Amino acid sequence: MKISTRTRYGLRIMIFLATQDPDSHVNAKEISSHEHITLKYTEQIIRLLKKAGYLNVSRGAKGGYSLKPAAKNTRIKDLYNLLEKDQKLLKCLEKECCDRKAICSTYDFWCGLEEVISNYLSSKTIGDLAREYQEKSVPPMFYI
Fold first, then answer.
1. Radius of gyration of the chain, Cα coordinates, nearest whole angstrom
2. Mean pLDDT of all residues in the chain?
3. Which of 98, 80, 100 is nearest to 3 (CA)?
4. Which domains are assigned to the chain?
5. Helix residue ranges, H only, the chain
6. Contact status, residue 125 vs residue 18, Cβ threshold 8 Å
7. Measured distance CA(35)–CA(23) in Å, rounded
């Protein structure tokens, strides 16, 4: 299974915005710089996220983007479906693509694997990944 850079970067952008102060707005250049994604590609992904209703937009000198509160509950599967063009693990799993389905020795295996992946993507939200990232990013405190 190959996941496109658009999906990987879109997920990183959403997690980055989920870790920001909800009252602040971050401009595309800051997002691009922090996530090491070109500004042009960042803007393309932001347009898709904005159109899908995940982002608040503020215009002006201190404008930028913030994650809508409800977007933290977005399942990774939903984001994947938004950003990924080829959503099936294999071409043969697409409807009416393979005429060997009935006799294929591996078809059921690939269907099962795709279901496991789909369930895992459905089990995690943007908020979950943002929390995990923040917990991982905080250095441990040592007291003497």
1. 19
2. 90
3. 80
4. 5-86+125-137 (1.10.10.10)
5. 5-18, 28-35, 39-51, 76-83, 107-123, 126-137
6. no
7. 21
Structure confidence at residue 106 (pLDDT): 87
**Residue where the block lists tokens 């090491």:** 36
| Residue type (1 letter), 33 | S
Token pair for residue 86?
A: 């080829």
The pLDDT value recorded for residue 61 is 82
**What would the two tokens of residue 42 be?**
């960042």
Residue-wise pLDDT for 72-118, tens only, equals 999 999 999 999 977 777 777 777 777 777 888 988 898 899 899 99
Query: Tokens 């602040």 belong to which residue?
Result: 24
Given pLDDT bands bounded at 50, 70 and 90, which one contains residue 6? very high
Tokens 């990924």 locate to 84
Residue 31, amino acid: I
Chain position carrying tokens 């929390």 = 131
Enter the tokens of residue 27.
């401009």
Contact 14, 128 (CB under 8 A): no
pLDDT tops 70 at residue 1: no
Length of the chain: 144
